[in-house]
Amino acid sequence: MLKMRVRLWLVGLLSAVFLLPLNAANAAQVGNASWYALHSMTASGERMNPNALTAAHRSLPFGTKVRVKNLHNGRSVVVRINDRGPFTGGRIIDVSKAAAAQLGMISSGTAKVSLTRVN
User: Fold this and answer.
1) Which interval of the chain is the signal sequence (predicted)?
2) pLDDT higher than threshold 80 for residue 81
3) Element (H, E) at 30
């Protein structure tokens, strides 16, 4: 039981460390993004629509709008968080296929991006 509590505490602490920059003064979070195009239900209860400008983030509240900027080509798009993920290591956001197209990352599958919260 104690080990479980310690693990949960560590997960919470690590989450705070990684998410603090995104919440503090709307500073950018930088990492890798990927895209997905399913038709399943999202964690928010919506059906995934690959043509909508939406995304999955591990902890931002549903409905949060985030500007995602592709650091390789400078293209950006504003997406609405409606799902949880990504669940692949090293990634900070999964965007819809429509958002990936605007970011110019369809063929590569992933891109280094910055995230900035939009109010």
Assistant:
1) 1-27
2) yes
3) strand 29-36
State the CATH number of the domain containing residue 16: 2.40.40.10
What digits encode the pLDDT tens for the residues 33-52?
A: 999 998 899 999 999 999 99
d(CA 54, CA 49): 8
pTM: predicted TM-score of the whole model, two decimal places:
0.76
For the chain, helix (H) and strand (E) counts, in that order, are 2, 6
CA 17: distance to chain centroid? Answer: 16
Report the domain count for the chain.
1
In whole angstroms, give the CA distance from residue 28 to residue 94.
16
96 burial type by CB count under 10 A (0-12 exposed, 13-18 middle, 19+ buried): buried
